[in-house]
Amino acid sequence: MKTYGKQKIYFADQAQFKDVNDADLKAMDHQISELSGEVQSLTQSCRQLDAELKELNSSLTTEEMVSEIRDLKAECSGYGARLEKIKSASNHITPEEKDKVYKERDLYVKEWKKRKRLASDMISAILEGYPKSKKEFLEEVGVETDEDCKAVLPST
């Protein structure tokens, strides 16, 4: 042991070790390098096996897979029955009726836009000479806007 200030350093007693010649050192170095290579290959193999184990643990077991297939087949047959029911339904809408409904919808949407624009123009004209804000005016008159009712103007 040697003391350097508050630190103490311990050394191994060299007398108990026998002298080793260069050939023995080279043989030991060679053995160390072989063992290091073996450790590396075993570590790599261990990593691969761990990855394989993780993959196998995360996949479904045979019983789970059979159950999943059974559930999916049941779901598929349910959808097939529903599709047949829809295909065989007698209350289909004819293309003419569908076109009529779409035309009426477009007409009502256009009318809604037109009336909204007219109301907006009238409110703007009134607000030109009105001393308060638009929000206060709408509150005072009692007008509810589409935005207040969360109504969204559909696209045509």
UniProtKB/TrEMBL annotation:
What GO biological process terms does the UniProt entry carry, in alphabetical order? homologous chromosome pairing at meiosis; meiotic joint molecule formation; meiotic strand invasion involved in reciprocal meiotic recombination
Spell out the coiled coil positions from the record.
25-59
Enumerate the InterPro entries for this protein: LZ3wCH
Q: Where in the cell is it found?
A: Nucleus
The yes or no answer to whether the keyword Transmembrane helix is present is: no
Query: Could you tell me which residue ranges the Leucine zipper with capping helix domain spans?
Result: 93-149
What are the entry keywords? Coiled coil, DNA recombination, Meiosis, Nucleus
Molecular function terms, GO-annotated: double-stranded DNA binding; recombinase activator activity
Q: A Pfam family matched by this chain, by name? A: LZ3wCH
Q: What is its main location?
A: nucleus
Q: Domain of life here?
A: Eukaryota
Task: Show the GO cellular component annotation of the record.
Answer: condensed nuclear chromosome; DNA recombinase auxiliary factor complex
PANTHER family assigned to the protein according to its UniProt record, in alphabetical order: HOMOLOGOUS-PAIRING PROTEIN 2 HOMOLOG, TBP-1 INTERACTING PROTEIN
User: What protein name is recorded for this chain?
Assistant: PSMC3 interacting protein
Give the taxonomic lineage as stored in the record: Eukaryota, Metazoa, Chordata, Craniata, Vertebrata
